[in-house]
Amino acid sequence: MRRPAALRVPNSLRECRRTACVIASAALLAPLLLVPVLGDDEVQDRLLQDAFADAAREYHVPRSVLMSVSYMQSRWDAHPGSPSVAGGYGPMHLVDGGKALPPAAAGAQGRDGAGARPPVGAAGNPDAGPAESLPGHRVQPADLERAARLIKVPAERLRTDAAANVRGGAALLAATQRKLGKPLSDNPADWWEAVKHYPGTRDITSATAYANDVFDVIRKGAHRTTAEGQEVSLAGNPRVRVARTPDKKRPKEVECPADLACDWLSAPYVEIDDDGAYGNHDLADRPRDEKIEYIVIHDTESYLPNMFKTVQDPTEASWHYSISSSDGHITQHVRTRDEAWHSGSQFVNARSIGIEHEGFLTHPGTWFTEQMYRSSARLVRYLAKKYDVPLDRQHIFGHDNVPSPTADSIPDMHDDPGPFWDWRHYFDLLGAPLKATAGADSDMVMILPDYVSYKPRFTGCGKDGEPCPPHGSSAVRLHTEPDEKAPLIQDPGRKPDGDPSTEDVNDLGSRVSAGQTYAVAGRSGDWTAIWFQGNKAWFKNPKKHPTAVGAAGRMVTPKEGLDEVPVFGRALPEEDAYPEDVEEPTESPLPYRFRAGQRYVTQARVDSSYVPRSSFVSTPSPVVKGQEGYYEIQFGHRLGYVRASDVDIVSNKSAAAGPPPAQKGGTAGR
After folding, report:
1. In 3D, which of 580, 510, 551 has the Cα closest to residue 657?
2. Are the C-beta atoms of residues 542 and 461 closer than 8 Å to each other?
């Protein structure tokens, strides 16, 4: 058995350990007995860390290069024996092309309209896309079979043994470095070209962005507890400076940062019948006619080639960007000035940019890759800066957070990207970390579980009712009482017949998510209550392993004298704002109760507007704008809107918010 490097044995004995020789001399063993021996848990925690050190030394690859490549490939997760969508295994994501997942194995589409996508076309190679026909650079990915030959072990071992997988990755990097005619140098900067070739990225821009990201990790360092529970750390080295931007011509329509690989595949704006029906997006002149306020994060629930067919079909939906799981490649379909049909709400569509990420919410470890997260975050940073979109969870949110425009549309709203999307990591990449902004006794909290270690039970990832494999999650469940055996909060909008909320992966009825901020309604031991869709909802929030942190900000509460106020899924203008030739849409308050004494967090006041886009036109339709203002609130899992005239603003205080105090003249929210 391999002796842990944590015992700090001499280099000669480490080499001996690798060849499985036996040390029989008591003289050699005696000094080791003086070194404190780590416990089993501490030894296990260092196995992967040691594997990187050993492989780096064996193949003469700088340890920082090896570890940073692995971090970009897998964030050091092993997922032993389980391939990614591209057929990649282990911490180094060594690719076995024959093991890429077929569509049937990738996960079921969301049920009951939740997250479902139209099954357009036959599924194909997940790497297929419009960039296939573009000139560029294509190299072989980090091939598992070749790595096995280089380190002379069976290929199966590289699929299941993290240490062997790391050795295989190191051997491939060293072989690439030699093939490039470069020395096996101790200087990480000398390995930039080898790093660029490692993932077999399909074009020069993507490969360059990948290498730049690897070297960004080298400079900044990283620390993480892996999905397998191992603590891995890499100290930063800010002196390493390598960053390059390729000179690549892109289609003129593309709106993308210069360091991202982006292509154009147009969604059609065409008339499809004699009655004026059209598809599959609307002409607009944003931000001149309507401010872009939101960026909506979706997952496709389908293979990307299917989605490319869908977005080119004028009878189907549309969105602005698609991002590939395997390499983070971006394809734009609709100009950001135009309104794509992506959210299920015309009000949100008119104010947002929609980004689809290739994947299935029930299989995050397979689809939600680090390269996809990083490409997406880089794109969102660019768009947010361009359109002045705040980097918070009331402006950067999931399809599952989009407010239902009407009461009867609630059951059909989608639930992607789901509870396994890592919002905490995503906002780190955005440069806007989710963190405490107030003390523990604040009357506002931000939901913030530790993604890796927090693994609530979910069902339905495969068959209905069957437990999902344990996985890190951004979602926290809500109960009616401070007791894990108490019923979950029931959602009368999603389940109007009174059916209870469940642990199903697609059931949003009793869930909150990382980064969302709520008003505190009470505390009891390890439990915290928040106001949620008109209810006092409890979640477990122990001090040693908190699932929420203190937050500062503003809340709204009904004005004095109002027993309750309506909550809407869109901020429509008042009746007098509509021209005679524009039919006023019907107001549809959501079926929840916002009562006196309750409070909900707001991060923005929004102007009311409505765009009467219902027929094929050659120029953007005028926007109807009202005088009535609204506040956007974190009302439930989804957002909501309340009229500014119905509520008062409440500043954050140290005491918990709750019902009006029982004293003469006392009012909540004043």
Report:
1. 551
2. no
- Owner of token pair 């997988």: 165
Split at pLDDT 50, 70, 90, the class of 204 is confident
Q: In sequence order, what are the residues at sequence separation of 6 or more whose Cβ sits closer than 8 angstroms to the Cβ of residue 388? A: none
DSSP 568: B
Smallest CA-to-CA distance from 321 within 262, 384, 273 is with 262
Reference 172, options 49, 84, 91, 59; nearest CA is 59
Where is average pLDDT lowest: 211-215, 537-541, 663-667? 663-667
Alpha carbon distance 179, 525 (integer Å): 62
pLDDT for the residue 249: 72
- Contact yes or no for 566/646 (Cβ under 8 A): yes
Separation in Å, CA 15 to CA 21, 165, 657: 9, 19, 63
| Residue that wins the pLDDT comparison between 269 and 29 | 269
Contact 517, 525 (CB under 8 A): no
Report which of residues 81 and 105 the model is more confident about.
81
Residues 6 or more apart in contact with residue 617 via CB below 8 angstroms: 283
The count of C-alpha atoms lying within 13 angstroms of the C-alpha of 500, restricted to the half-sphere facing its C-beta, is 8
Write out the H or E segment, with its range, that includes residue 423.
helix 423-429
* CB atoms closer than 10 angstroms to residue 288: 10
Per the DSSP assignment, residues forming a β-bridge with 251 are none
- 3-class DSSP assignment, residue 260: coil
pTM (2 decimals)? 0.85
Q: Tell me the sheet residues that pair with 397.
A: 296
Degrees to nearest 5, angle at CA 251 with 343 and 254: 30
Task: Specify whether the CB–CB gap between 116 and 101 falls below 8 A.
Answer: no
pLDDT per residue as tens digits for the range 582-629: 999 999 999 999 999 999 999 999 999 999 887 888 999 999 999 999
Give the integer Cα–Cα distance in Å for 285 and 621: 9
Sheet holding 535-540, edge to edge: 535-540, 527-532, 517-524, 444-447, 548-550
Cα gap 224→71, rounded to integer Å: 10
Integer Cα distance of 577 and 612 in angstroms: 13
What the block records as the tokens of 144 is 């598992």
